[in-house]
Amino acid sequence: MKYIIVLGDGMADEPIAALDGKTPLEVAKKSGIDALAQSGEIGLAYMVPKGMSPGSDTANLSVMGYDPKIYYTGRSPLEALSIGVDMKATDVSLRCNIVTLSEEEKNYEDKTIIDHSSGEISTEDAAVLLEALKVGLAREGYEFYVGTSYRHLLVWKEGKVVELTPPHDILTRRIGEYLPKDEVLRDMMKKSYDILVNHPLNIERKKQGLNPANSAWFWGAGTKPALQSFEEKTGKKGVMISAVDLLKGIAVGSGMDNIEVEGANGGLHTNYKGKMQAAVDALLHKDYDFAYIHVEAPDEMGHQGLLSEKIQAIENIDCYVVQPLIAALNQSGEAYRMLILPDHPTPIRVRTHTNEPIPYLLYDSTKEMGKHQMYSEQEGKESGILREDGYRLIEHLLEE
């Protein structure tokens, strides 16, 4: 038996008037996923424990079977594992987004966040800007590391975990009241704008009609995590397929292998086919029992408020990941169980994560588990199944 999780990050949503009261999941053309729903189990699950912030960090830990109340020490430390940073117990790491701020206002505090991802800036461009920050913001005890796209890292030696606001939670808002209380961090963010606003790369980006990546934004502070081995916990040898450092870091921390897919970038035009093929190769031609395929695109489109693009991302997951994956598994004759779900909703209306329960679809190639019209939030509600402890959903997947 092989086990697969296909996670469409943030693909759950709310009924939208422009869609005649339907959600992106309901209107997306996803014949492969909906075919599985006709003999699969659909329900709702809380992937983020009550009282915790609905981030991809806490939610994906839950999907992987790790109770965030026990294992969560902050988002950035998980990403540090992926990047390969050797954190000490006294280190604090922080996510360093490269964001787009408005430029008309004189005072930094009066600016607004236009784009938390600087137009999904390439890693190559971001690395150039990070190098400028390393030089311009050089301080003893603070060190920058390049991550992926707009997602980077600051390690604070002998630091402290401070309360910081995720930039995607305050899009279009004045930033003054959300700046760090810590004087050094606040000063570094202000100076980062001065360093980046007229950087040649940003001048060129504006000429090309792209959002300038004109400020650092710190958030997600935390200390070094300690995750139990996934294989020891589940008895399954697993592989992670993701473009996002957070997911790669969870894999590193839990002893899973990461598969790097060329062209996988966390955006709408990521290499879906490459991710699918990596899973097929791992499950059918290598010694893996479990594959976690993570696709960031629906979440990014939700944050940007792009409705048609979010629908397209869901359709891409179905067309280029789920359908060919099912075909390959069926042709092999290998029995399998597949769990399809988001980690959290990212509604177009609010452009950030919410802590509502997510709909999941569990399919078993060897038996009928239920009967549904399609995979959607409404089908989850009507199922009558509500799993309060979402971190235990993986136990249900691994049952036989």
Summarize it.
By secondary structure, the chain is α/β, with parallel strands linked by helices.
Keywords for this structure?
400 residues; 13 strands; five-stranded antiparallel β-sheet; 18% strand; alpha/beta; single chain; 2 domains; Alkaline Phosphatase, subunit A
Would you kindly provide a written description of the structure presented here, covering whatever features stand out?
- 52% of the residues are buried.
- The protein starts with a strand and ends with a helix.
- The chain is 35% helix and 18% strand.
- The protein contains 15 helices and 13 strands.
- The chain has an eight-stranded mixed beta sheet, sandwiched between helices.
- Helix 6 crosses helix 7 (183-196), helix 11 (272-285) runs parallel beside helix 13 (307-332) and helix 12 packs antiparallel against helix 13 (307-332).
- The chain is of the alpha/beta class and 400 residues long.
- Strand 5 and strand 6 (151-156) form a beta hairpin.
- The model has no long low-confidence stretch (mean pLDDT 96).
- The radius of gyration is 21 Å and the shape is globular.
- The protein has helices at 24-27, 31-37, 56-63, 68-71, 75-83, 123-136, 183-196, 200-207, 230-234, 245-253, 272-285, 297-303, 307-332, 377-383, 393-397; strands spanning 2-8, 41-45, 92-101, 113-115, 142-148, 151-156, 215-222, 238-241, 257-258, 290-295, 336-341, 358-364, 386-387.
- It has two domains: 2-72 and 227-397, Alkaline Phosphatase, subunit A (3-Layer(aba) Sandwich), CATH 3.40.720.10; 92-222, no CATH class.
